[in-house]
Amino acid sequence: MESNKRQNLFLILTGIFLTNAILAEMIGVKIFSGESTLGLAPANIKLLGGYVLDFNLTAGVVIWPVVFITTDVINEYFGKRGVRKISYLAAACIAFAFLVIYIITLLPPAEFWLDVNSQDPDGHPFNINYAFKTIFTQGLGIIVGSLVAFLIGQLLDVFVFQRLRRITGEKMVWLRATGSTLVSQFIDSFVVLFIAFYFLAPEGSQWSLAQVLSVGIINYIYKFFVAIVLTPLIYLGHYLIDNYLGTELSSKMKEEATATSEGFF
Hints:
Elements: H1 2-27, E1 31-33, H2 34-37, E2 45-46, E3 52-53, E4 56-58, H3 64-106, H4 111-116, H5 128-136, H6 140-168, H7 173-199, H8 209-229, H9 231-245, H10 247-259
Antiparallel strand pairs: 1-4, 2-3
């Protein structure tokens, strides 16, 4: 019975984690205006080097908080081993998804498909095959940067989480959950930008150091705010899982998770 509950819980959490992690990567190619979404004027914030920045965010951040929460829940009940297993699996699935998408974009389009979609609703010429490639393909730097930042962020999250748990014990769930997210996402926010737009960017399109730091700061401000706001959902998740597992099994799994989570790797 205990074994079934453990497996069922891990399968459910894995499904939620993988779905949202992969989907976030897929929709991340769209950049939306945070100010326009809220009906506000552009912020026009002057940051490092006089770079003017608005709250323009990748669409992936809309559902990425689900990944934050799921990571913390897995961390609590399955420890470093569980987070590491699901993180490596997610990275492999994301890489596979990008590979399949790249191969699909190389397939020659059917003529009737081009003809049927040759105009937009306003009657303007429209190349749907070009649009498909543009939307679903990203530069190598973005893919590499995203995967590296994802893995570093996940490993750092579990490390900080378990260190805080050893200090707080069963209490202060908000501190270890939110604290680990704030630390790991600080690194994540800058690693992906440095790799994708500074180190591996195509010649002529490399961002300046000031731009990388400025965009990273804006991204982290958003993640910081979301991590704080979503703290009540962490408690809700723990409440539902504890009720499902039962007090004895729940406590046992948390203790095992902490005992097997020494070190960073």
